[in-house]
Design goal:
Chain A: This is Chemotaxis protein CheA. Chain A: It holds the Pfam family H-kinase_dim. Chain A: One of its GO terms (molecular function) is protein histidine kinase activity. Chain A: Its EC number is 2.7.13.3. The complex is a heterodimer. By secondary structure, chain A is α+β, with helices and mostly antiparallel strands. Chain A has five domains: 134 residues, Four Helix Bundle (Hemerythrin (Met), subunit A), CATH 1.20.120; 146 residues, no CATH class; 60 residues, Helix Hairpins (Orthogonal Bundle), CATH 1.10.287; 179 residues, 2-Layer Sandwich (Heat Shock Protein 90), CATH 3.30.565; 146 residues, OB fold (Dihydrolipoamide Acetyltransferase, E2P). Chain A has 20 helices and 23 strands. In chain A, the strands form five sheets. A six-stranded mixed beta sheet of chain A has the order 15-19-20-18-17-16. In chain A, helix 1 runs antiparallel to helix 4 and helix 13 packs antiparallel against helix 17. Chain B has one domain: OB fold (Dihydrolipoamide Acetyltransferase, E2P). In chain B, the strands form two sheets. A six-stranded mixed beta sheet of chain B has the order 8-1-2-11-10-9, with no helix packed on it. Chain B has a five-stranded mixed beta sheet with strand order 3-6-7-5-4. In chain B, strand 10 and strand 11 form a beta hairpin. Classes of the chains: A alpha+beta, B mainly beta. At the A-B interface, helix 10, strand 22 and strand 23 of A face strand 4, strand 5, strand 7 and helix 3 of B.
Chain lengths: 717, 155
C-alpha cells in the first residue's frame, strides 16, 4: 500500500513539474504581451492543480502559497486587475517559490524557503489592492466567463449555482477494474443537491445476462457551488470506463428547470445548449473492442492513439508517455546487442562460401541500416528538450538581477532542441555559473549603460541548436566584455604565459579557463570575472564537451558550449596494445603521430622524452602502463597519441591504431573494486569486449611526476 | 519420536556442486542465474589476480572471477571445457570460473556440518560448512565473502 502511495506521490511531483512549466510559459507569454484569453486560464489551472495535489499529500506550505497565488490570479482572471508587467513580475516570485517548495517537499523537508513570508505578504497586498476594484454585473460576468470557458474545463466565479446534467453509463470494463458506480454516485451527493435516475432499459433477459457486465446508466442533475473540474473529479477513476457526459447550465438561464428526469432528457440538454454556451464535457469509451478514444483533459496523459483531427476540440500539446528511465536503458542495451549481433552475423556470412548469393547481402545491408536507425531512435527517447533547463536559467537571471539591482532580460532560442537527459542535468551548474558571472560582472548598471548609449535593460541570449551531430549552446551578454590586454598582462604576471609569448585573440580569451585565473585576485576592473571558469570547463569536459569564449570589449562576451547528443555513445579511437583492443576517447586525443628515433631524447638513465615542436613531452608506454608487458626499449616507428591533460600533454605509445568509431559505453559491473585507468567498456562488432581507457587516469596512477604544464606547450606552438 | 512434525522440519536447500582444482564446492542453487561454457575473456589491467577478466553476457559486461585463485589455489588454465557459473548476489551479477559442474542435489539445511577449527588458511574464510554425501566431502561456499572484494582487500 505504501509503495503505491509513494508511486502516486512520485507522479504528483512529476505532474507538478509540467504544471510549473505551463505556469512559467503562461507568465512569460503575458510578460511578452503574446498572451490570449486562454493564457491566464492555463496559468490559473496550473496553480490550481498544484494546490489540489499538494492538499492531497498534506504539504501545508505548498497549499498555503498556491492558495494565495490562486486568489491573486483570480483578480486577473476575473478582469479586476490587468495582467501588466508589474503583476507578472510579482507572479514570477511565487512561481519560483512553488518550484522550491516542490523540491523541498520531494525531500520530505517541510521548512519554509527563503522569501516565503515576504512573498505571501506581497501577494496579500496585491489581493487587497484589487479587491476594491469595481465588479461587473453578475449576468455579464457569467456570460463572459462562460464564453471564455468554452474550451477550458475550469469555470469562472460562480455567482449563481450552476446545474450540471450528468449522464453516466459504465461500460463492461467497470466491474473487472474494481470500480463501483454506487460510490461514484454517492460522492456526487457530497457536492450538492442531486437527483439521480437510473435507466434499466438495457438490462437483457436473464439468459443473456452476463453478471460481470454493467447494463445500467444513470442521469443525474446536480445543483452545486462546485465548478466543472470538481464535478469531473468525481469521475476521475472511471472516466475511461464509461460514457460520461457532463453539461452545465446556469440556473439564471434555465427557464424551465426540470427536475423531472425523463428519457428524452438528452435532447432537452441539447436544446439547452443554445442558451448556455458552455460545451458539454464529453468522454466516451464505447467498448473494449480496442478503439481507444482519449479524453482531451490532460496533456500529460499518455495517448497511444489520438482522435482524427476534426474530433479534437483544441490543438492539444504533443502527446507524451512517461516511462521509467530503467526501461529505456534496457531498450538501449538490447538494441546495442542487436547491432552487435548483426555485425557478428554479417561477419559469419562473409566467411562462409555462401558469398556468391547477392540477395543475402542486400538483405544484410538493409538489416544493418535498420539496426542503426533503431539505435538512433532509441537514443532519441532519452533525449529531452532543453526547455526545462532554460526555464530554470530564467529564474537564475531574475534572482541575480534582483540581487545586483540590474535590469536584465533573458532571451531564449531553440528551446525544443533535444539533448540527452543526463547532459541536461549536467549543464545546470555550468550555465548558472556563466549567467551569474555575466550579470554580476558583464552587464553594467543601468546608469553606466545609458552613458554608453546602450539600452538600460541588459540582455542575455541563451540559444541551443543541433550542429553536425552535436549540440551547441551559446550564452551571450551585451555587457562590457573583458579587456584582452588585461587578461594577457595578468597571465604573464602570474607566469601562466611566457613573457615573450605571442598569443592569438582566441588563445587569450580562452586563458580565462585556466585554473590560475580562478583566484579571486584576477583582473581588477572586472573583479571575479573568470572565477571558477576552470570548474565550468571541467564539468563540460566530463560530459565530453568543449567550451569556448569570445569577448569583445564594450560589446559583450559569448560562451559557446559544444556537447555530444548523448553520453551513452562516445567517439573513440580503437587501438591495439599487446593483442588487447582498447578504446581511447577522442576527446582526450590532440593528434596522432609516428615516432622517429630522432625525436626521442634520453633524460637520465632511462627516462625518455619526445621532442615535438620544440617542446619535450614525457612518453608513456600504454602496454607497460597497463602491465601487459615490459617497457619498450626502442620506440622507432611507434604509433603515438598526443593526449591533452588539463594542464599538460604527454605522448601515449600504442602498438596499432585500428579505427575511429562511435562506441556504446557500458558500465563495468563494479564489484571488483576500482579499476584504475578504465572508465568503462564497449562491445565491438565481433562481440568481444574492449575496455575504454581513461589515459589521464593511467598517467596519474603510473607516473604522476611526468606531467608538463600545458601552456608551455600550447602557447609556444 | 518416530514421527516428525512436518512444520518443524527445516526446508531442504538445493545446492549446486562443482569442482575447483580437485576439490568439490557447493553454493545454493538460488544464487545461480545460468551456466556458460568458458569463452575468451578480456583481461582487466591492474585488477587483482583472482579477476579472470570480463566477458560479454548478452550485451552486458560480466566480471569473471577465477574461483580457484580466489580460494588461494592455483589459477585455472581455462579452456572450452571450463564452466562459468553466473551468480547473482546482493544485486551484483558475477561470473565464477570453475573446472566443471558436477551435481544439483537437495539436502536438509540442518545436515550441514560446521567447519572444524583448523586455523584460517587463505581459502578457509570462504567456506562456511562442509557436507558429506556418500564418500564425497563438499565445501559450502560463502558467496557473499567471495564477491565482496573490497572488504577482503581491506582485511
Amino acid at each position: 500500500m505504501s509503495a503505491s502511495i509513494a508511486e502516486i506521490r512520485d507522479s504528483f511531483f512529476q505532474e507538478c513539474i509540467s504544471h510549473l512549466e505551463a505556469l512559467q510559459d503562461g507568465l512569460s507569454e503575458i510578460e511578452n504581451g503574446t498572451e490570449n484569453e486562454e493564457t491566464i486560464h492555463e496559468v490559473f489551472r496550473a496553480v490550481h492543480s498544484i494546490k489540489g495535489g499538494a492538499a492531497a499529500f498534506d504539504i501545508v506550505t505548498l497549499v498555503k502559497l498556491a492558495h494565495r497565488f490562486e486568489t491573486a490570479l483570480e483578480a486577473v482572471r476575473s478582469k479586476q486587475a490587468a495582467p501588466d508587467k508589474k503583476a507578472v513580475k510579482l507572479f514570477l516570485r511565487p512561481c519560483d517559490l512553488l518550484g522550491d517548495l516542490l523540491r523541498l517537499a520531494g525531500t520530505k523537508n517541510s521548512e519554509e524557503p527563503e522569501g516565503f513570508r515576504t512573498c505571501l505578504s506581497e501577494l496579500d497586498a496585491y489581493i487587497q489592492n484589487n479587491a476594491e476594484s469595481p465588479v461587473k454585473s453578475k449576468s455579464t460576468e457569467n456570460a463572459a466567463s462562460n464564453a471564455q470557458d468554452r474550451e477550458s474545463t475550469s469555470v469562472g466565479i460562480q455567482q449563481a449555482e450552476p446545474i450540471f446534467d450528468i449522464f453516466f453509463e459504465p461500460n463492461s470494463e467497470i466491474f473487472p477494474s474494481g470500480n463501483e458506480p454506487l460510490y461514484v454516485l454517492k460522492s456526487l451527493y457530497e457536492l450538492g443537491h442531486v437527483t439521480v435516475t437510473c435507466d434499466t432499459a438495457k438490462i437483457p433477459c436473464l439468459s443473456d445476462l452476463n453478471p460481470e457486465n454493467s447494463y445500467l446508466s444513470w442521469k443525474a442533475e446536480l445543483l452545486t457551488t462546485c465548478d466543472l473540474a470538481e464535478v469531473k473529479e468525481v469521475f476521475d477513476f472511471v472516466e475511461d470506463l464509461c460514457v460520461l457526459n457532463i453539461s452545465e447550465r446556469q440556473q439564471a438561464h434555465s427557464h424551465t428547470r426540470n427536475l423531472d428526469l425523463t428519457s428524452n432528457r438528452v435532447t432537452e440538454s441539447d436544446s439547452n445548449a443554445e442558451q448556455q454556451p458552455a460545451e458539454p464535457f464529453q468522454i466516451t469509451q464505447p467498448d473494449a473492442s480496442g478503439r481507444q478514444s482519449s479524453a482531451k483533459a490532460s496533456v500529460e496523459k499518455a495517448r497511444f492513439e489520438s482522435r482524427p483531427p476534426e474530433e479534437i476540440a483544441a490543438p492539444a500539446a504533443k502527446p507524451t508517455v512517461r516511462v521509467d528511465l530503467d526501461r529505456v536503458d534496457l531498450l538501449v542495451n538490447q538494441i546495442g546487442e542487436l547491432v552487435i549481433n548483426q555485425a557478428v552475423l554479417a561477419q559469419s556470412i562473409a566467411t562462409t562460401s555462401l558469398n556468391t548469393d547477392a540477395s543475402i547481402f542486400a538483405a544484410l545491408e538493409d538489416f544493418s541500416q535498420l539496426a542503426s536507425d533503431l539505435q538512433d531512435s532509441v537514443m532519441m527517447i532519452r533525449a529531452q528538450p532543453v526547455k526545462t533547463l532554460f526555464q530554470r536559467m530564467a529564474r537564475v537571471v531574475r534572482e541575480t538581477s534582483r540581487t545586483t539591482q540590474k535590469d536584465v532580460r533573458l532571451l531564449t532560442e531553440g528551446e525544443s532542441t533535444e539533448i540527452d537527459k543526463t547532459v541536461i542535468e549536467g549543464l545546470f551548474d555550468p550555465l548558472t555559473h556563466i549567467i551569474r558571472n555575466a550579470i554580476d560582472h558583464g552587464i553594467e548598471c543601468p546608469a553606466e549603460r545609458s552613458e554608453y548609449g546602450k539600452p538600460e535593460i541588459g540582455e542575455i541570449h541563451l540559444t541551443a541548436r543541433h550542429k553536425s551531430g552535436r549540440v551547441t549552446i551559446e550564452i551571450s551578454d551585451d555587457g562590457r566584455g573583458i579587456n584582452r590586454s588585461e587578461i594577457l598582462r595578468k597571465a604573464k604576471e602570474t607566469g601562466l604565459v611566457d613573457q615573450s609569448a605571442k598569443l592569438s585573440i582566441s588563445e587569450v580569451d580562452n586563458l580565462l579557463f585556466l585554473p590560475g585565473f580562478s583566484s579571486s585576485n584576477s583582473i581588477s576592473n572586472v573583479s571575479g570575472r573568470g572565477v571558477g571558469l576552470d570548474i565550468v570547463r571541467n564539468s563540460i569536459a566530463a560530459m565530453g564537451g568543449r567550451i569556448f569564449v569570445t569577448t569583445t570589449e564594450m560589446k559583450g562576451t559569448v560562451f559557446k558550449i559544444d556537447l555530444p547528443l548523448t553520453l551513452a555513445v562516445q567517439d573513440g579511437l580503437v587501438v591495439e596494445v599487446s593483442h588487447n583492443t582498447h578504446v581511447i576517447p577522442l576527446s582526450n586525443i590532440v593528434e596522432t603521430l609516428i615516432l622517429k628515433n630522432s625525436d626521442i631524447h634520453l633524460f637520465g638513465s632511462s627516462t625518455k622524452m619526445i621532442k615535438i615542436r620544440e617542446k619535450f613531452l614525457p612518453i608513456i608506454d600504454l602496454g607497460a602502463a597497463l602491465g601487459y608487458r615490459k617497457r619498450k626499449s626502442h620506440f622507432d616507428g611507434c604509433n603515438v597519441l598526443l593526449i591533452a591533460q588539463e594542464e599538460s600533454y604527454f605522448a601515449l605509445i600504442v602498438d596499432a591504431i585500428i579505427e575511429q568509431r562511435q562506441v556504446v559505453i557500458k558500465a563495468l559491473q563494479n564489484n571488483i573494486g576500482a579499476c584504475p585507468g578504465v572508465s568503462g567498456a564497449t562491445i565491438l562488432g565481433d562481440g568481444k569486449i574492449a575496455l575504454i581507457l581513461d589515459p589521464i587516469d593511467i598517467v596519474k596512477t603510473t607516473a604522476p611526476q611526468n606531467r608538463f604544464r600545458k601552456e608551455e606547450y600550447s602557447l609556444a606552438g | 519420536m518416530h514421527e516428525t512434525n512436518e512444520l518443524d522440519r527445516p526446508a531442504d536447500s538445493e545446492l549446486l556442486s562443482f569442482w575447483v582444482n580437485g576439490q568439490e564446492y557447493t553454493i545454493d542453487v538460488m544464487f545461480v542465474r545460468e551456466l556458460r561454457g568458458w569463452s575468451k575473456s578480456t583481461p582487466l589491467p591492474h585488477a587483482p589476480d583472482f579477476v579472470h577478466g570480463v566477458i560479454n553476457l548478452r550485451g552486458n559486461i560480466l566480471t569473471v572471477l577465477d574461483l580457484a585463485c580466489r580460494l588461494g589455489l592455483r589459477p585455472i588454465n581455462a579452456t572450452e571445457r571450463n564452466v562459468i557459473i553466473v551468480a547473482e548476489i546482493q544485486g551484483k551479477i558475477v561470473g565464477l570460473l570453475v573446472d566443471r559442474v558436477s551435481d544439483i542435489f537437495s539436502i536438509p539445511t540442518n545436515s550441514q556440518q560446521a567447519l572444524p577449527d583448523i586455523g584460517s588458511g587463505s581459502g578457509q574464510r570462504f567456506v562456511t560448512a562442509i557436507l558429506t554425501i556418500e564418500d564425497r566431502l563438499i565445501r559450502v561456499l560463502d558467496l557473499k565473502a567471495i564477491v565482496n572484494v573490497d572488504a577482503a582487500n581491506a582485511a
